[in-house]
Amino acid sequence: MKIHTKISFWGLVVAVWMTVLPACQTDFTNPNAPTDAQVLSSRDGLLNLAVGVRVLYATSGVRFMVENNAVTAREAAITTTFINMIELEDGGDALTDFNTNVEGLWASMLRVMGACEDIVAAVDEVELLASTRNNLRAYANIFRAMAIGALAQNYAEVVIQTNRQNEASFVSRGEAYAEAIRLLEAALADLQGDPSPEVAAILQGNLNLQDIANAYLARFRLFNGNYEGAIQAAAQVSPQRTSVFTYDQLNQNPIWARVIQNNVPNFRPIDHFGLPEGLRPEANDGRRAFYLAPSEDININGFPIEGLRGFFENDNSPIPVYLPGEMALITG
Amino acid sequence: MRKVYLYAPPKGGLLFSFLLLVCCFMGTLQAQNAVTISGKVSDARTGEELIGATISIQGTSIGAVTDLDGRYALSTTLGQESFTLVVRAIGYSSQNQVVTLGNQSAFTFDFELTTDVMNLDEVIITGASAATSRRQLGNAVSTVSSRDLAETGGIAVDQALQGKIAGALVQQNSGDPAGGISVRLRGTSTITGSSDPLYIIDGVLVNNNSNELVDIGGAAQNRLVDINPADIERIEVLKGAAAAAIYGSRASNGVVQIYTKRGKVGKPRFSFSTAVRVNELRKQIPFNEVPFDWVNPGDRNNLETFPVERFNLQDEIFRRAGGTENNLSVSGGSDKTTYFASVSYLNNGGIVKNTNFERIGARLNVDQTVSDWLKFSFGLNYTRSESQDMPNGGINAVDGAITGFLFSNNRVNPRPNASGVFPVTSLLVPRTNPAEAVARFDYGQRTNRVITNFTLNANPSEKWNITYILGLDYYNQSAFGFIPVGNTSSNALGWATRGDANVTQFNNDLNISYETMLTPAIRSTTIAGGTWQQDNFERIGITSDRLAPTVRTAVGGTIISAIDVRSDVSYYGAFVQQTFGIKEKLFVTGALRYDGASVFGPEEKIQSYGKGSVSYNLSEENFFKETFGSRISNFKLRASYGQAGNLTAIGAFDRFLNYNPLAIGGLSAVVPSTLLGNDALAPEIMNEFEYGIDASFFGDRLGFEFTVFNQQITDLLLQREVATSTGFATRFENVGKMENRGIELLVRANVMRNRDFNWDVTTTFTTNRNEVTQVVGDRIILPGSFGTSAVIEGQPIGVFFQGFYDRDDAGNIRLDANGLPRRGVNPDGTNVRVIGDPNPDWFGSVINDFSYKNFTFRVQFDAVWGFDVFNWNRRLLDNAIFGGGENAGRELLGEIPKGTGGVQAGIFEEFVEDGSFVKLRELAIGYNYRPKSGAIQNVRFNLVGRNLISFDSYSGWDPEVNTPGQSNGVRGFDFGAVPIPRTIQLGVNLSF
Q: What CA–CA distance (Å, rounded) separates B28 from A304?
């Protein structure tokens, strides 16, 4: 009998091993997110990434562009005790390099640039309609230029090309604008031919790439002292159309989320846009009623503050990519 | 007579060849005539019969266990002329008896055992597969018995371990009724991952996640809370890498092996215990009681005030809460089948209103003997844990009761008006009126969990022992949160969330041991084993705000976030361990393990871990016995080296560059993760040296265990910041180094003993110096610490790195013309520096156990000394713009300049306080009554107190808590954390 039971012990062990072994996997595919290899090697991946770039720019990018400038320029005043906001309002030595806002603007623009560079490099490796290839390249170059320009507007020296080996080099503000201008000019050239139905589908009629390229070209040429070129580009922007970033409940208008959401503002506009006496818009200037909701509140540091309206009243309020009025100012 | 066995021809495959080889060894057995041995085992001091003592034949796996009357009987057909019987019982010194076979076939031996203060003869199972006595081990192993776990007032296993183990810092992070607990064995051993040990219950690798499915401000339960301490027979704690090496890639934080109660041969034996408890806040903190307030709190120059009435908002939050605990178990069995079954119910009220924890559990352990060489056992544990939670703290979410208290100006009467609307008490920023939070918020979670083990154990011959374990741990944890429409919180329009996690852990282990006498003096034990493990984690959740009135579910409003995350990880490995025991004096062990895990890069998947240890029982040498024998009864030197790994730092797919999917306006989109992929990731490796002395004196009445350890942890996985010019923010790399160096001391003394009175003292003392010896880049600021807790080279993990006071050369704080302090500036122009360290210099405990006749009395003091706590509460309370704190009142009274608290808020150093404490952790009084006749065998009454008194200088409620819960690196962080309550429990146990 012993022989029987002995075999049955191993029989049991083997039986259990056999039930278990088919489940023995040593490699798993990530069901939650695709990898770079999957995204950059397919048409769908590239188009999805193009939409992602826009969302990134329009949410965290726009948040920091507006918030950092508004608070440091005293257009807005903080209404929380979070240290990043306190430092931002204190300014000077108190504002550290590792402040969330200082880092956030820098990092989100470089993320946009990195992803755009990936798209530009990948369009030639994936089978695409010629128009899609050109339009996608133009789209990526426009966002890349916008990101470079945003960096140049906020930092003295910037990076214009990401590098995963950590060998990126810094260039001056002027050189950065020059690169942004070059990219926008290239994009306009790429947009010459037939429009791509696939790229048009991801624009959803909210963004006009020619207008955006020309508007930013006008802005950056202006900053770089090429006034003639600036006027020329601004004139190309149709005053009849607007280009807007759209939002929804899961990709919220970032300024709404920071100021209006739940009535827990992180900052609010200072009375008269924070402008000193003499520079303030007139009392009946339409911008006052458009952007500001009157309030008697005073912030922690004693600034008189107002409520915010403008393009930020709801979680899905669209934010314009540029203000047509800016073009009018450039063209004079 | 020699038996001949026939086997089926091999069907191919290595496994079968191996099995055949094993079976061939079995074939060499010889049969002999049976010998029976029987007798009785009792306590040498009291004469009481010892139940559950084991009697075994040395060098074999033949043995028996004493029954309820202390009797045993065993039979053997061993073909030796003589052999040694070894008698062991938990808490007693072992005894040997040489048996010489003549023609006699029946022997009777009675044994009287003396208590073993140092547990030198205790049988250790963990880390060895085959049971080994502590004497043989080259590393320190701590054990805790069911007796130590009873009458602690703790509701969870880890909580009950507080202060019981040298080298283990057990911290309760929250005073919630199922408040999370962190266990650090010899310090923190990772930066990014978890430093909590690996928990194994009856061979099942159990999950101890601290899932934060709904943000309740930072605190979270750890899932060990699902285990009922009353079901536990004993716990073995392996603190070092040497002991843990054979557990491989998951073991560098140490291993806690839990063994649950098992049935014993005999008629059914019932045990019933019931207890009622009271939890209460130990103390209230002072608050602003000044009957006037600033007209303009933000303006330092405006000293105008107006009269107000002040309220004590703590009364709105805290309460005295009750609880009950009932356990019923039955055990028994026949020669072939034994069983242990239990049901339990726990209800633990929280000291914060509207909080509660309930646990219902059932367990069944069955052991079946199939034949004289084959056994199997089956264990099943079902638990349902349910809690009512209240958000407090505010690492991310800021809605909560204590959180609201911190921001509130207590001049506002917090009670609702006649229509039930609560007033806004936080006048500056929208934070919840604490009275409204406890009255209207509805948060909770529910866990349904099943832990199953199936174990096969074979002793095909006296020399072979084969164990196969299949373990399965599954739970569903479901949490929800609800803030009704129209309230004072930051979610005024209502908010609802629901989050579920499904967690499965599966392990499959085969261990084979072979023990033989190579020569009469050298015993060899070889163990080889293999494992296959797979973990599956699935999480789903939705959150919405702008709720429709009366709706409480998360689809009743605008969905603002939704997640669905799944991951699988597999682990596989094999090890071999060899021990040589030379004349039962010197034991040398070496082991090697290969381990693989799916999370690592292709080149790094397989890792090897080694260990080596030596244990030398000097007191067994004749010269020693002759010289010191009368005073020093045991003296053992030990040394060990081991390696173990940790892979908790990275998730299943963190080595890839992943693109996060999202959708907008009907379009699919992907966004590159900020985490750059790295295909070369490997586990963190701990190398540890440990040296120690175990000694006992005066007939084992005084003993100590002393260990020096040095852990060097390399290849630490850091989510290293990469230059943002890469287009990414971070990347995991094996770049950090860390060390833990310290000592552990355990002293046990039997101060006094006679027939009626016994007094034992147990003291533990541990020091540990943790140092991060390498991080790439200047420093890492730990997430979830408000930019305050940092990892800095040359410093312990998690030091507070923030603004400091401007001081004169004598170290006094410099005041400006207005009498206000200023923030200091370093010579290099920066204005931050290390201002505190949350890691204790030392910790320890003193436990006094008295028994007099039928009375027992135990008192345990725990001390944790030399650590800092960042008191974020005071940073808000003291600030005049919020105005609820005591110092805000002192500003009103003019005792300190107006604005002091506001300036201090920007200096930070002010709020770093010494957290050192001594707590009266446990006080237990028990009375045993044995009715002379009747069904009831024993009645025990007990009165237990837990966390009764704290001696500390901390200005907050409790220096022991940690708002970010079981966070690895962010410690000593008090921001609206619930203090640990004082608990008093009255219970009765019946055995029948």
A: 95
